[in-house]
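The instructor's notes for this session suggest beginning with a concrete chain rather than abstract definitions. Hand out the sequence below and ask the class to guess, before any prediction is shown, which regions might be ordered.
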Amino acid sequence: MRLSGKVAIVTGGGSGFGEGIAKRFAEEGARVVVNDIDEAGGNRVAAEIEKAQGQGSAQFTRADVAANADVARLVHQTLERYGRLDIVVNNAGVTHVNGPMLEVSEALFDRVFAVNVKSLYFSALHTVPVFRKQGGGCIINTASTAGLRPRPGLVWYNGSKGAAITITKAMAVELAPDKIRVNALCPVAGDTPLLASFMGSDTPENRKKFIGSIPLGRLSTPRDIANAALYLASDEAEFITGVALEVDGGRCV
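After discussion, reveal the predicted structure:
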């Protein structure tokens, strides 16, 4: 059990990559707080984890990661229930539909940056003091290959993920003396609820185009991303910090 005795928060855990990460962590012994704004999805994932791993292995907490008070409550409730916090996976994310950059509304631009970037600030505000008090911790930010090798039509989303990567590296350097490791995952597109928006529309032609850009010849899966997150969260990665790990089938080569 690579995460035995550890407590993890996984934001955006009600579907997609977050669901995969939450379930994989629980399989390896972690007690997982599944966070999402989708109550149905979050409750489903937590219930499935409890059924598979046993009572007390998961709980769902609804919180908007772009709201300071919500993130504060998320961390507080985790500490109240489990008494500690070891791992935070800042996975929740949104995008705009693939299309001309000037057609993205200001409101949508603000939401993309609030969820994908400002949430990292709120997370740090409420988790770093906990980790410092405990003598260390692990933060994993879900970025994207979009922050490394941008696709046209996703300008503002690309920018938000580029910010997440830079923030990850800067946090890693500043928090290293506190034994707090900070890393990022950079997945290529996967068959998740955001896929249709990334492609503009989910058609066989668009899927073929996206898959054609991936040397290993397929989209990513939640399990792919979860296995990478598990490594970064485990003690095996105790000397790994500031990394933007490409989980992309060769997309960024």
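Then share the key points. The two ends are 33 Å apart (CA to CA). The helical segments are 16-27, 39-53, 68-82, 106-134, 155-175, 195-199, 204-212, 222-233.
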